[in-house]
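Why do we care about 3D structure at all? Because function follows from shape, and shape follows, mostly, from sequence. That is the central idea of this module. The next example makes it concrete: a single protein chain, its amino acid sequence, and then its structure expressed as tokens.
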Amino acid sequence: MKRFTLLILLFTAFSILAQDKFRTSTAIVNFEASVPLFEEIKAVNKLGTIVIETKTSEFVCVLFIKDFTFKLDLMKQHFNENYLESDRYPKAVFKGRITKFDVNEITDLEKEYQIKGKLYLHGKSKNIEVKAFMKKVSEGIQITSDFPIIISDFDIEVPYTIAGKIAKTVNTELTAVVECDGCDTKQIVVVDTN
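And the structure:
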């Protein structure tokens, strides 16, 4: 019986340590660049990829610019062709580290973390720090974050004639549930040593 219990404990310890990557390819990123009294400028991308390496606290988020959807096709066209030039710069990438992150401390109570890293957008990069809230949910770890993006930091040019209709700072919201990569494939193997 002692050997059986020891085997179960060893497996449990191994499975916790083996959970070194959490990921999703369905992160949702909303942005809004609306200005009062003018047409609403909003878009959503539901195909964001996030990877969290628990051993290093590394956080990576990748979005393809063309995956943003708008309520008007003409807005999407202008966004891709004139502002973000998505044929030339197809992705937005954020790479950073989660400060004081320990996957074993994540509970069903939301906890605030800081993520420091570099945002690559429109051929430019900028060091940024964002707040992220994380908690355990049945599917994995839920992450939410709100952060501003100043368009001039990334050399996104807005024609003078419409500059007053677009916010200089874009409000961005991220929501995702990252799942343990490979956790479902692990199986308990019980070996009777008697």
